Every structure is written in C-alpha cells, then in structure tokens.
Amino acid sequence: MDRVNGASTVRFVELFGPIYEHSPWIAQRAHAHGPFADGEAMLAAMRHELDRATDAEKMALIRAHPELAQRMGVDPTLTSASAAEQASAGLDRLTPDEFTTFRTLNDAYAARFGIPFIICVRRSDKEGILNGIRTRLDNTPEEEQQAALREINKIAALRLADVLARLEQEP
C-alpha cells in the first residue's frame, strides 16, 4: 500500500480510475481519503464517494456500463475489463438462440428502466445472468437503480483486487 498511498492524484486516478466504468471521478475523489490501511479501506473510500454522488452522477455511472452479450466489436466503448469479464461468463460465445434470448431480455429491461442491465458477471454464469434479468424486471425503477449500484460495487471490488495484485507483482 506504500506505493498506492504515495501516488499523486494523477497517478492514483490513472491506476484506479477504471475501477468504476468510465467514471474516474470516483477514484479522484477517493484519493483525498488516503492514506489507506489496505484495499478494503480504499474500496470503502470509493464506495463513500459513490454514495454521496449526485443522482445524475450515479445515473451516468450506471449508463456507462455496457449492455451484456452484445456481439464483439459492436460496442466501441467496451473496456478491456468489461470484455474480459463478459468472456469469463461465456457471453462472447453465445449460440444464436442464446443471443436472441439475451437480446430480447436486454431490450425489455432497457425499455422498462432506461439503463443497461448490470450484474457482476464474474460471480455468475449465463443462466444466472438470464435469471437475474428476468427476476429484476419485476423491480421498481428505484429498486433497480439500487440493485445496479450494488452490482457495480461488486464489480469494482474485483477490479480493485486485480489492480492491487498487479501492483504487488511489479518490482
């Protein structure tokens, strides 16, 4: 954590800005809470900054997430982290029927909530993701915004652990 705590704001955001999809402002604001005892403390600072963000900022973060199970190359904003996460759940290798099912559910979800369906795919599989979409379609918009933010925090925790592990391996 010495390297993390000694990082300038610019370097900190460079390292940890991608933790929350296309939202480096979270890392930038969290940097002020350092020094951090450990990764959990750093994650708590980031979650704190997300919790105190405006509704518009939260919605922008939610909308920054990619739609799941798009055909590769369709979404030019797909980050390498998102692509790898989706691949880990097999979403890059859907059969035509699976793709149609995802497309139908994604469309229904987007029509109902106006946001992409967000789930921590690294903690799920294709069937779990499909069940999640089906179940969460019954939520109210407010419940779904909170569900999306909970999932975003799960994703961020895994991404943070990945970055910290890479930093530990560097000389």
UniProtKB/TrEMBL annotation:
SUPFAM superfamilies: UraD-Like. Keywords: Decarboxylase, Lyase, Purine metabolism. GO terms for molecular function: 2-oxo-4-hydroxy-4-carboxy-5-ureidoimidazoline decarboxylase activity. Residues 6-161 form the Oxo-4-hydroxy-4-carboxy-5-ureidoimidazoline decarboxylase domain. It catalyses: 5-hydroxy-2-oxo-4-ureido-2,5-dihydro-1H-imidazole-5-carboxylate + H(+) = (S)-allantoin + CO2. It comes from the Bacteria. InterPro entries: OHCU_decarboxylase, OHCU_decarboxylase-1, OHCU_decarboxylase_sf. The keyword Nucleotide-binding does not apply. Its EC number is 4.1.1.97. GO terms for biological process: allantoin metabolic process; purine nucleobase metabolic process; urate catabolic process. PANTHER family: 2-OXO-4-HYDROXY-4-CARBOXY-5-UREIDOIMIDAZOLINE DECARBOXYLASE-RELATED. This is 2-oxo-4-hydroxy-4-carboxy-5-ureidoimidazoline decarboxylase. It comes from Komagataeibacter oboediens.
